[in-house]
Amino acid sequence: MSDVTKRALAASFENVLERKPLDKVTVTDITDGCGLKRQTFYYHFADIFDLIKWMYRINSENAIINHGIKYGTWQQGVRELIESAHKNRTFIMATYNSKCRDDLVSYLEDVTYQRMLEVIDRMADGSIVAQDREFLAHFYTHAFVGTILDWIKQGMNELPTEIINRLTTLVSMDFDRTINEFENRNTKQP
Question: 48-188 adopts what CATH topology?
Answer without folding.
Answer: Tetracycline Repressor; domain 2 (1.10.357)
